[in-house]
Amino acid sequence: DVTKESDVIKCFGWINDTIGAIHILINNAGVLRNTHFNDGNLEDWKCLFDTNVLAVGMCTKQALRSMEAHGINDGHIVNINSIRSRYQSMKDGSSWYSASKHAVGVLTDGLRRELASKKSRIKVSSLNPGGVLTEIFEKGHIHRDPEAPALTAKDVADSVIHVIGTPPNVQISELTIIPVQQYNM
User: pTM above 0.70?
Assistant: First the structure.
């Protein structure tokens, strides 16, 4: 469970003991909730921030510790964020989700600056996809228009490969991908 620090520490400990150094971290866990200010519930708000923000921080911290312990100075951290990190949805009830994704964008930029100030060559990227056909809508009990243009998980994976495949002197700090014909940012 990425929202539990003890689980995250245990997982990364297993990776270090069994596999070895972490060179690349892809933070991809995320939840979506349709929640409002007036009648929204605190548990939904906490769930959004625990999963979408704090889990990213905890996993990143453990990956950086692994990289440091193994002398990895050219790793890569990719945060699968959302177009909502840049554009508020027109749909009612999406403010809390958008706020959590905006926080990830700010933290990603902050980490990149922190590492650069230490002369680290570890790259940090934010990948901001538009609508992707995954179970996030179902699990969040949110209706998704089946006719709306959407990306696939493979589209996102291909973009990750593009981001991590750059030469050592090139860092894609942020990449936004949307399906052709997506118009309601």
Answer: yes
